[in-house]
Every structure is written in C-alpha cells, then in structure tokens.
Amino acid sequence: YTSLILVLLVATVAFTTIPTKSFAQQEGWIVKTSGAGSLDIMLEQIWTEDGTARFKISFLQPNTTTLHEHQDYDVLIRQGGNQIFSAAAEINQPLIHNAEGVITIPLQPFQFPQNGDYTVEVQVLGLGFPPIPINPETATFPITVTPEFPIGLIGVFAAVIASSVLMTRKLNLL
Length: 174
Prior knowledge:
Distance between the termini: 13 Å
Number of strands: 10
Number of helices: 3
Largest sheet: 6 strands, antiparallel
Order of helices and strands: HEEEEEEHEEEEH
Strand content: 35-45%
Low-confidence stretches: 17-25
Mean pLDDT: 81
Structural class: alpha+beta
Shape: elongated
C-alpha cells in the first residue's frame, strides 16, 4: 500500500512539472480600425504544435472585406510596454512595404518568452504606391499567452482514480 502511494506521488510530481506549450487565449481572427480610420486591420493568430506563433495580417478598406493594396507598416510585439519584436527590424529595415494587402509575420515563428499579457501593434506608416507617408496609425491587439493543459496530467488523474478504486476494493475484501 505504501509503495503504491509513493509511485503515485512520484508520477504526479513528474507529470505536473513537465514544461507545457504556450497558446493564446484568443482563437481565430480579430479586426481593429487603425488610429485615424484609414484602414481596418485583421489579425489572425497561427499557433504551431511547439507553441510558437505567426500572425496573418490583412489590410482592408474601411468597413469592408476588400483588401487594401500597398501600405508601409511595421508590426511590434510588446510585453508590459516594452518592445520585444519588430517585423521591420527582423529584416533590418525601418518599415515594410506590402503590395498585396496580406502578409504573414514573422519570417520564423515567434516564441513568446513566457506566459502573460502581450500586445501586437500594427503600425501603418504610408499608403499607396508610390507610398504617401501618413501620420502613423496603430491598431492594437491584446493577446494573453497561457500554458496548454499538460496531457500527462490526465494520465495521473486516471491512475489516482484507478488506484483509489483498487485500494477501496482491497480494503473491503480484508
């Protein structure tokens, strides 16, 4: 009986301390209007199995689903007000020009450093071709990164329940 409890205790500690992947609470896409209303910006979160993320960004004509072609922009990820990523800096440029109206960033999936609250900021810096500079307009998307429920924990719960049933039966038979 004591050895069974010890095995269950060790299994519980082992499975509950396994590092888990991170995923954002929000799923699907979110649409926000840029600061002065020049564009609607749709952000779709794309999560991978290893807990990294990419973002598909669509620049839309205001109040429509029609893509807006040709804009200069940057995408920032902030944690607690501190910038931890810039799409333009990733390619060593001050800004990025997009011709088609849809882009997926970053080039390599982004690993959030820890669970918590983040913001993805899409900054529009110019419109048209050739680009006409505008006062920067920003659309801000809040993201909360949370750990995935560890699948091993389900096994631990099942083992504890099964052991409890077996021990109850054994004690009733004595």
